[in-house]
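Extended Data, panel c. Modelled sequence:
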Amino acid sequence: MMRSRFLSFLVLAGMLCLGSTAAAQAIETPADEAILMDYQTGQVLFAKNAERPTPPASMTKIMTAYLVFERLKDGRLSLDDTFVVSKKAWQKGGSKMFVEVGNEVSVEDLLRGVIVQSGNDASIVLAEGIAGTESAFADMMNAKARELGLDETTFRNSTGWPHPEHRTSAQDLAKLSRALIRKFPQYYHFFAEREFTWNDIRQFNRNPLLTRNMGVDGIKTGHTQKAGYGLTASAKRKERRLVLVVNGLNSTEQRAQESARLLEWGFREFDNYTLFEGGETVERASVWLGEKDRVPLVIEKPLTLTLKRDNVDDMTVKVTYESPIPAPIESGERLATLHVDGPALEKREVPLVAGSHVAQLGPVGRIVSGVEFLIFGAP
C-alpha cells in the first residue's frame, strides 16, 4: 500500500521553491526588468518581466569576462599573455580603456579595462585575440549561453553595442552571474576593484554600490539610450549571497538607489535554512522479507531552502513510498520521495535512497516472516 509519513519542521515552515515568485508582489520597482535571486539556492525572491528579452548594454561584458576566465582556468590563457590592439578596437566608441593601435596589452590589464572601466576597446581586443574576429567570439558567446541554459540570450558583439538582435533577459544575466561566481572564484575579485589607471587615465568602477558598506563585490553596469540604466550586482553578508539584475531605470541615481533598496529588502525579508544535510536519514521504512526490519531513507545532497522570515508556520513535509519495501534492497537504490509544500508555494520533490544494503531472508526466514506479517502486520 502507498503510505505517507508526515514530518513536522516548525523552523522550516514557509518554504519558497526554486523559481517561485510568490513573494514578488511584496515589493515594487520602477525598473522595467528586474530579478533578485539567492545565490546558494537559486530561489527567485523577486521578479518583474525577468524573462523578457531586452538590450543588456555593457552587462554583456559579463559573458566576455566569463569566456576569458574559462580559458584562464583551463590553461589556454594566462594573465601575462598579451594581445595586439587592432584599429577596429582602437576606433570603437563609447566607454574606453584608451588602448593604442599596435600596443601589446596583457590579458590581466585588458580584463581590468573591461570590468572596471567598461572599455569597449578592451572587450574587442580580447574577443579578437581569442577568436580571431569579434563576430566569431560572439558565436562562442552564444554557444556558451546555450550551454548555460540562457534561453532568451543572443549576442552579436562582445561589448553590448546596440544591435537589433543583441538581447538577453534579467533572468539570464542572473543565471550567468551565478555561474561565473561559482566557477571562477579565483578571478571574481576583479569585479570588486574600484579603479584602474591605464595610459595615465584614472577611471573608477561604474558600479555605484561598491563604495557602500553593504557587502557588494560586483558585478557590472550597463547603459544605452534604448536600454536605460542597468546593473547586475552581487552582495555577500556572512554566508548569504544575493544576485540582483535591474534594467530600464532612468538615471544613475535611480539605478544606485533602487539596486540598494532591493538588495536590502532581500537580506532583510529572507534567510536560508538547511532542511537536511547530505547523507542524513529522513525516515526509516519497513522492509518485507529482509534480514533487517527497516532500511534508512537517505537524502543524498544537502537540502537548503530560502524562506521568508515572516512566514514560518504553514509547511507540509512528507515522505511517500510503497510499504513495506521488499528485500533485497541495494544501498543507493531510490526508494522514496520527499515532498515539501505549503500555501501559494510550488511543490518540491526530492528523491530518497536506501542508506544500507538489506539482503533477502532465506526460504525458512521468508516463511516465518510471512506468517508473522499475517498475524501481526508490518513491523
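The radius of gyration is 26 Å. This feature is highlighted in the accompanying rendering.
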